[in-house]
Design brief:
The protein has 409 residues and is of the alpha/beta class. 36% of the residues lie in helices and 15% in strands. It has a seven-stranded mixed sheet with strand order 1-11-10-7-6-2-3, sandwiched between helices. Strands 12-13-14 form a three-stranded antiparallel sheet. The chain has a two-stranded antiparallel ribbon with strand order 4-5. A hairpin with a 2-residue loop joins β8 and β9. The longest helix is centred in the last third of the chain and has 19 residues.
Length: 409
């Protein structure tokens, strides 16, 4: 399984994992489309990339969709196209994969971390984001935790009111909708992921969404070394000439992968409905259970991708022991995410974000993927409930809890 942007869990061999955290699945018909792309003789960014971009525009409602090599690439391009650079700052969540913040730092701008909304709402708080704005602030970067839309509509209103760029890390949110709009289309630009564990996982790849014509123009140039016309565009126009308009990067996707993503997109809604069924079973089983609490669900009538399903352990539960019990039964777990403001790369804890820190110490991600069988869902539920019920840390002689996995983690 590819990198899912999470911390390593207890060691267990792949053969012993009865329920993996995620399970990328490509159908034979989808693989055939990639084979056809290879046999076509056109391997780099070309006609199938153009078809994928059209499909994404149609599905998400975005005016422009620009396919790139990864979600990280889409975020970096979005930050560059928004004009972020040295001397600027951007408001970012700490509870995110490194790419969310690295994309800002890669432009020379400085990330400014802001708090989550609550322990059961682990996404960037619009109120906290506004409080963190300073004269140098040029952008807000939101991350859709687990595919939940979070406060993206409120963040979009804030960005418009304060004349800031809103950039959406929608890596978890393929198929997530709020107020009739696809997540990733609320701000200046949004980024989707095709990484292995994501809802449209094919291995790697990404998509930049925008309604801004100038952002789209710059994104198309930046993904291929600032060149004015791609190889496919020059082939179609029978015009071999091109100019280098600005310093760019090599962030192209290739046609075989584009063909795979386009095929996966056709079953995205069906896959997400199955994910929602798994989530419903989890919620019914864990509601009111001892030792664990649930995140706030999306508002009634909204759709979430359910890319990640996390529970929050009570403060007395040893997280390492909880995860080890699940691992011993073949259930893989993970942590989304180690907080970035505590990382060596970003100051090592010089910023205080108590809600983020508490969630990051207590959250555990459980398996979720469309092909989960009923017995697998049942095994996760049974084992998690047993681990939570028996997971209270022993009381020391002074009446305090012993050193727990929460502290160790």
């Amino acid at each position: 399984m590819g990198n899912n942007g999470s911390a390593p869990g207890p060691e267990v061999s792949t053969a012993d994992r009865k329920v993996p955290l995620a399970s990328p699945c490509l159908l034979e018909s989808e693989l055939q489309e990639a084979i056809d792309a290879y046999r076509s003789g056109w391997l780099c960014m070309g006609p199938r990339t153009a078809e994928l971009e059209e499909s994404m525009r149609s599905y998400t409602g975005a005016r422009e969709a620009i396919a790139v090599s990864s979600c990280s690439a889409a975020l970096h391009i979005a930050c560059l196209a928004a004009g972020l650079g040295p001397g600027d700052t951007a408001i970012v969540p700490s509870l995110a994969f490194a790419a969310t913040v690295n994309a800002v730092a890669a432009t020379g701008a400085a990330p400014r971390f802001a708090e989550i909304a609550a322990i059961d709402r682990p996404w960037l708080s619009a109120e906290a984001a506004e409080a963190a704005i300073e004269p140098s602030t040029k952008a807000i970067v939101a991350m859709s935790y687990g595919g939940h839309p979070g406060e993206v509509a409120a963040l979009a209103e804030l960005a418009e009111r304060r004349n800031l760029a809103l950039i959406e890390d929608a890596a978890h949110a393929s198929g997530s909708w709020q107020e009739g709009r696809h997540v990733g289309t609320f701000g200046l630009a949004g980024a989707l992921s095709f990484s292995a564990s994501k809802n449209l996982g094919v291995g790697e790849g990404g998509m930049l969404l925008t309604d801004d014509d100038e952002i789209a123009r710059r994104a198309r140039a930046l993904r291929w070394h600032g060149i004015s016309a791609s190889t496919w565009e020059r082939r179609r126009a029978a015009a071999p000439e091109y100019t280098v308009e600005e310093v760019g990067l090599n962030y192209r996707i290739d046609d075989p992968r584009a063909a795979l993503v386009n095929a996966r997109l056709r079953r995205l809604d069906d896959d997400n409905r199955r994910r929602a069924e798994v989530v419903a079973a989890y919620r019914a089983a864990f509601a009111g259970a001892a030792g664990v609490s649930l995140l706030e669900p999306p508002p009634e009538g909204e759709r979430a991708s359910h890319c990640v399903f996390a529970v929050v352990l009570d403060e007395g539960i040893e997280r390492i022991g909880f995860r080890e019990q699940l691992s011993a039964r073949g259930v893989e777990t993970s942590i989304h995410f180690p907080p970035l403001h505590d990382s060596r790369a970003y100051g090592g804890g010089t910023t205080a974000l108590p809600l983020t820190e508490s969630f990051a110490q207590r959250a555990v991600s459980l398996p979720i993927f469309p092909q989960m069988e009923e017995w697998q869902v049942g095994l996760v539920i049974e084992t998690a409930l047993e681990a939570a019920e028996g997971g209270q840390a022993p009381v020391d002689g002074d009446g305090s809890r012993g050193r727990s996995a929460v502290a160790a983690g």
